[in-house]
Amino acid sequence: MPLEIVTVPCLKDNYAYLARDEATGATAIIDVPEAAPILNALAEKGWHASHILITHHHDDHIAGVKALAAATGARVIGAAADQHRLPRLDEAVEPGETIRIGMFAGEVIDVSGHTIGHVAYHFPEAGAVFTADSLMALGCGRIFEGTPEMMLKSLSRLAALPPETLIYSGHEYAQSNARFALTIEPANPALISRSNAITEARKAGRPTVPTTLSHELATNPFLRAKLPEVKALIGLAGASDAEAFAEIRARKDRF
Ligand code: ZN
Ligand code: FE
Fold it and tell me: What is the pLDDT of residues 170-194, one digit of tens each?
């Protein structure tokens, strides 16, 4: 039986997710920007939240944790490294550890860079990873606490997952990310067609999540920084992967 995943738009452009193991009824909520829309989505489905998985300490991902935990009794799980700045955890996890949502095992992956201690949750049997503000559709999070080298390493961990893996990120930034990506690779045919598809989806009010890792590998400038042709396009032929990545991140920060 599958892991059923429901996307819940929150705040202005955040996404939270419900992930339910059909076999046992165990239901995880991934990030809680605010409690109300998630409680509504749970009620609509008739589901009961058993776990709350926190990706990182920013308010737009945790502001509703306390209220949701109080309303549902769900078990709160987050990174041990971030325990001092997260809502009270029932379970503090380290990268490399495995959590369980019913029958589904979830691997905790360190994706530091946006913040130090940011984790992603990868469910191999479901072919899904919850990346929040690390890897996003055509982008990655701004580097607030880590270094470009650290973020590059984190993205490389995600890039090594099976290419068909579904990427569930924390924000709807795809349209502006696509505009930026086209400044780096204006002639990338996969990027051009994807950018058009994103425009159509947003016009229809459809979320652009999830995306697949294979789409990201073909179009996301932050995963493509290491390619010789991309280095050449940004005037950094022969530069290191970290230099090329840092240059693309810096351009995006100014975009
Ligand atoms: Zn964040
Ligand atoms: Fe965020």
Answer: 999 999 999 999 999 999 999 999 9
Instruction: Convert the pLDDT of each residue in 123-171 to its tens digit.
Output: 999 999 999 999 999 999 999 999 999 999 999 999 999 999 999 999 9
In degrees rounded to 5, what are phi and psi of residue 50? -105, -25
Which structural domain, as residue segments, surrounds residue 61?
3-254
* Nearest ligand by distance to the CA of 60: 2
Cα of 153 to ligand 2 centre, how many Å? 20
Give the DSSP letter string of 126-139: GTEEEEETSEETTE
How many angstroms separate the alpha carbon of residue 187 from the centre of ligand 1? 31
Angle CA 217–218–224, to nearest 5: 60
CATH number of the domain bearing residue 245: 3.60.15.10
Q: How many domains does the chain have?
A: 1
pTM for the predicted model, two decimal places: 0.98
